[in-house]
Amino acid sequence: MTFVCAESYGENGLIIRTDLLVTYGGEEGVPLSHFAMPKVLVLGPDVVVGVSGRGIQHGLGEVVHYWNETGSAIDLRAALVENGSKHRDYLMAQSDRRMFTLRDGANEWTEETSGFAWIGDAQARAAVLPHDALSQPSAPEAHGMERAIDETWAMVRSQTALRREASSTVGGMPISVYMQRGEFRFTQPEQLTWPSQEAPVLRGFDDVHQVLLSGWPTVPNHIHHEDGYPATLRICLGGNAEVTYRPTTDGYVGDAYVRTDQAWVHVGPD
Prior knowledge:
Blueprint: E1 3-9, E2 13-18, E3 22-27, E4 30-34, E5 40-44, E6 47-53, H1 56-70, H2 73-83, E7 88-94, E8 99-102, E9 110-112, E10 116-120, H3 122-126, H4 139-142, H5 146-159, E11 175-180, E12 183-187, H6 205-212, E13 221-226, E14 232-237, E15 241-248, E16 251-259, E17 264-268
Antiparallel strand pairs: 1-2, 1-10, 2-11, 3-4, 5-6, 6-7, 7-8, 8-9, 11-12, 13-14, 14-15, 15-16, 16-17
Helix pairs in contact: 1-2
């Protein structure tokens, strides 16, 4: 299980958010976890797809496979209806701000017209803040900052849903996709980039893994969108470590690196 949500804001904004925690097995309420993994694919400048449920890695690879075959949002939706697993749910967001979900092996997608769409853990969904939960500055007081305020507001609303306090199957570093100049890109708000505490030195895979699954960022970090589309996600951690997630037909291929005095060294996963 996991949680993926999308929300439109302002005149042309759209944000997609998810967590990094992957859970499997274990006893009820105490799932086991393995290497952190994003649950969204930025397939093209105009299409993002999120996956939740069982076998997320396989589901991500399945989406990449059908995207490579079809190259269009409409045809990809048709392929997932015909061939997708009934044990997985899918969310699609488009640059025209249309959002669709496919749940429980349904024979058609549901277009979500409320401005908010989600798949995954229902407990996490219940933790999303309602629109009237916080006081938001009015536009005249914002002095041209309306978009930044709307963007931050959309991020804040879903933040509580991506923490372990919301559900035992959700957690790890939040990952965001925004629409910038009409194109989807992995990115994050600047205010989430630099925690106040001094960053520890990350020395190996265990350190990197712990940071990725720690929830709210515990070291200085930044997200980069690389290699065009489908996009590779690169997360820089603390100045001496980074993780890349490259989309393939087998799902995301993740690699962690730390910087020594001599060079960048690959540290996992093995």
